[in-house]
Amino acid sequence: MPKFSVEIIIEGKKNARDPEGETIMRDLMIKHGYDMVESVRSGKILKVNLEAKDENAAEEICLKMVNELRIYNPVAHMCVIKLVK
Amino acid sequence: MPKFSVEIIIEGKKNARDPEGETIMRDLMIKHGYDMVESVRSGKILKVNLEAKDENAAEEICLKMVNELRIYNPVAHMCVIKLVK
Amino acid sequence: MPMNVVVIQFSGSTCDRDLVNAMRNVMEWDVDFLWHEKAMKNLEKYDAIFLPGGFTYGDHLRAGIIAAFTPVMGKVKERAKEGVPVLGICNGFQILVESELLPGALIGNETLRFSCKWTNLRVETERSAATNIAKKGDVWKVPIAHGEGRYFLDKKGLKDLNENDQIVWRYTTETGELTKEANPNGSIENIAGICNLEGNVVGLMPHPERAAESTLSPWETEDGKFYFQSIEKFLRRS
Amino acid sequence: MAQETIQQDEINLTAEEKAAVFKVLQRDLTLPEAAMLEVMNSEHCSYKSSRPILPLLPTEGPRVICGPGEDAGVVDIGDGLALVFKLESHNHPSALDPYNGAATGVGGIIRDILCMGARPIGLLDSFRFGKLSDPHTKWLLKHVTKGVGGYGNCVGIANAGGEIEFDPSFQINCLINVGCFGIMRKDELALSTATTPGDRLILLGGSTGRDGIGGASFASKDITEESESDRGAVQIGDPYMKKLIIEATLEAIKSGVVEGLKDLGAAGVTCSISETADAGGTGTEIDLEKIRIREDDMEPWEILVSESQERMFFVVKPENVSKIGAIFAKYELPYEDLGVVTDSGKCVVNHKGKPIVDLPAHLLTKPPAANRTAEYPDYLDKLDRKWLPKEPETKELNDICRKIMASDNIISREWVYRQYDTEVGLYSTIKSGQGDGGVFRLTEFGSKKGIAATFDGNSHHCYLDPYNGGAGVLMEACSNVAAVGAEPIAFTDCLNFGNPEHPKVFWTFEKVVEGIADAAKALDIPCVGGNVSFYNHDQVNNVAVKPSPVIFAAGLIDDVSKAMNNKFKAPKQHIILIGETRTEIGGSEYTRVIHQTENGQVPKVDFTTAKNTLADMVSIINSELVTASHDLSKGGLFVTLTEMAMASNLGYNIDIHRMPADTERVDIRLFSETHGRFLVTVINENLGKVVAQFAQHQIPATLIGTVTEDKKLLISNGNDTNIIELPLEEIKQKWKFRMEEEMEGKIQK
Lengths: 85, 85, 238, 749
Ligand SMILES: Nc1ncnc2c1ncn2[C@@H]1O[C@H](COP(=O)(O)OP(=O)(O)O)[C@@H](O)[C@H]1O
Ligand SMILES: [Mg+2]
Description:
The complex is a heterotetramer, with 2 copies of chain A (about 80 residues), 1 copy of chain C (about 240 residues) and 1 copy of chain D (about 750 residues). By secondary structure, chain C is α/β, with parallel strands linked by helices.
């Protein structure tokens, strides 16, 4: 079976504060002269390599998996899945 | 000035172990039926919105910034910068 | 009264022995301490189920998430539905949230740091299995030790939680005032612990087992005992 | 042998080392053999520079079960129990990768305790960085703290304390030492030996990768710009797997199937197969293919010297292999049966059916020592021992006190220790910030005794006067233990120095060891282990770090409920100063912070009274005569008093004219760092008894003032006028939050 690589990106929902992103922006970037930065959000990324029939299947498996295994907590996070080409 | 969105992805070096990715794969994915998964690497992502002259400038600013502000430690991590189109 | 309770040990549990020791030595309970796979087979026989604190599975991905998917948690859910007290401390609370026995999420502390310190917990309801000997408004000294303890829930959920009297403890000052400074992790509305609608499933971030003996407390307090005594009373009643 | 060999001149060994090898072997080496010999001959593994000096340290005592040589020291603490403890450096890895460096340091020291058969219950840590306000220091401190906490918290071992020093000499080459202690039943002692031919050799845990190849050699060189590329892949700790290994190992020992046990640290498999064989007078033979590797293309030599984390090595009877396997399986831990114990005296490694290594075990474990020369360093001549600052005017004193309380080396370390779980295990009865040493109860092991553990170091004193500095560090560590009421029973050390090939550096090493040794003899306390870290040299500024011995002292208290903290208990209680104050301000906080110089006389331990002072302290605390206790160290009397006040939110009123001292000078009385001094508080009726206890040994115990209700720090000098008058709250805010402000850029409570 062919192999695919999928990126799962988990980040906080807009309504949950992201102190890490805020701190990186305020205390690190802005303070050190990078005042062109307007916002920073921090998140987690999982790079998954898997076997699947085809691209679609790979994406679908991951989609099913992130929901079923709560790779993200829907109360606090959002999750995006991207096939790496 | 136009605005751009850049993704900064920080992950462990290729040969370095990633106990988090390994555990997620072994104890969560494989154990719950996702045995088509062959590897998982975990990392961190920062989504930065910033003002810049153009796309090139946006990427360059981020590149300079991650190194200068030690957003990652080159001894332990690799860092990839991607302009989001 | 013979206490028929179990503490479940998950892979990589770290405050499991602590909890068992406090129950045995301080409360003089007769408790079973079981590896999750073993507990799975015997869960029917217990009157109360404890999920200990610390870490499980290295807290990889998110604290509590991998343990939430262990088969034993399926059984725990069934028992919870039958009204059996299910008590999660710290990581146990995180497991309860991740297995959706309790609503919400426990995310990274606002300080971005792990934090171990003594906090003041104001009892918000007397109806939970873990607070029924307390008086609403009592303040307990109990320490926290966590990196992911910031309780989060959306507006609607929070309204329900308040209306249904599911908020069990809040972080306050020593005298019971709700201040920003008293909140060690940025939890929404200073929430430290909650229960389900029925009050039998209770999650709490701080560690009552660390606060049940005066020799372990900087103030020589024993407030953690109230937690265990409440459960004793709850079991006697049911 | 069927393997291609390596030219003699390509082997990275000194002439003497080569001679030692070829005298025995009389043949060429295979590549894996050369790699194994190189790493076992490295400074880090062989202690080649320090070995001739270390025997100065006394190692014997009635409690000692295992002294230096084993993976950790083991001492008898009665009730059928033994205390196991050790500390170790992880300086170079932490300087480059502070998170992973510190984390794997913790992982390594835990393994050392575990492999004696003990349950690890406490961790300690010691950091040395450049100035706190420097951005690089902040970067290091932030990530080192996260690394120590990240590993220790996850593996569920409580932090019992530590120490931090800031000094420009550590700017590039920071020093990160970590310690661990554990408790076991005496009869469960596991040794790193393979005594019986036919026994099996089992490797438990993580797979073997390229990470940490040459880690030991890395620790045996200066840090240079090339250091980064010098290293194999960074080592990543896996505390979750370590936790499983701890539980599985302890379960295996309990079930009686472990004949020998060795952790895999420096030099990996090489070290395990050779040290167990040599210690047991046997040999070992393994199949290389059995070792699970992470990268397919690893060379045999890489596999043999890799320092991949989270592995343990077991010697097991053939009939028990399946039994131990079942225990490992419960925790889902992978393991392999690598081979067998032989009677050949050799370490043999087979690869594809052919031997690629065939070396006498002792060639690996007992390489020749290096003969280093020592030469008196001339910087010492430039220092003025007799130097004294101009005496400050009275009106300047308040500000001097403010400055000292807010200085890098005095401010509260709370920002650090809050990030550590100090409570897990339900052991800690005196926690970080509450006393001079952490105190752990042993209820879980069926004993009402308590263990006191402390780390201490003082690079400033050791730089100015290596001998007296070294002696002082041991005295200070033991004083910390005695201050909580525990009898100091043994110590281990970590000796952090520059390049030993520099005779002037080596001289300071010798002197420090002499100082520690003489103090140990005076205090009658054995050294049960240690660690040496050389090549701590800042290439950028071309300076060696200041000589930095760090001492881990362990104490025992018979009834843990009597352990004493440093908090004033109630107004009106008397404040008593134990000991005499001398004009010893060289390297002190006062001299460095206020006068910005490194001159002056360093404190000298009074070998005639030291032991009695400590014994009397232990005695008054155990007789429940005192209500608080604290030893005087960095910052002297003023800092110690103020720390006690801050811990309790009570004030004090002191007359320093009463204190016995060799000088009338107020500044020296306030800030001298003379050793062997303590502050205790007592209620009126016990005053006489406390004074009498010390009087037997001609040690002064002087009533110098009282604890007060109002939160003021008041000090007078023989009359009614205060020479110091400060509000407690103001001093406390600065002291308590300055590190947090520096690290977070803002105050958050
Ligand atoms: N790196 C550290 N890790 C944990 N605890 C620390 C650390 N540094 C200091 N501490 C704690 O802070 C307190 C004060 O430390 P220190 O001033 O070095 O004490 P002392 O002068 O009595 O040796 C002690 O309780 C100590 O254990
Ligand atoms: Mg001290």
